[in-house]
Request: fold
Amino acid sequence: MSEITTLGWAAAAVGLLLLVGLVAYALSLSRQLDAQQRRSAEREASYRALAAQRDSETRDSIAVVCQALVSGDMVATEAALRVNYLITQSQLTDTEQSGLRPFIQLAERTAHLPIRDAWQALDKATKRQLTGEREAHEAELGEALGHAAKSWLAAHKPRGVIH
Reply:
């Protein structure tokens, strides 16, 4: 057997120090990765909670519009346009969206109608024509809209919004 020289011992010591350093570095990276994953999971949970709150508030807002329609405080076209917008701001189930289909249909049929300043700029004959068109769409979908609004209100009771 050969004897290990001083140079051999020095090389072994350097190798051991390198190994210890690499292990320490690997442990440090592992801890950093764990902390990053934990922060990411916490952020994701926070985002999910905010999305759930937003969806709940959107459902309440749809209920407010439905209540206004049922009570006659809002015309059907305005209700349809508002509900149609609110649908885009939330993650509604397919069942919920299909229940609101009459609102979507009326919003699509009346989307071309001018509003605000554009409406004011129209002449009386054009306003009468477009009002008649709007009222015809509202009459055609009126019963379905009322049923959809009442169904939504039966399934989604807003918290503290409607008395």
About this structure: The helical segments are 6-71, 76-88, 94-99, 101-110, 116-120, 124-155. The CA atoms of residues 9 and 15 lie 10 Å apart. The chain is about 80% helix and 0% strand.
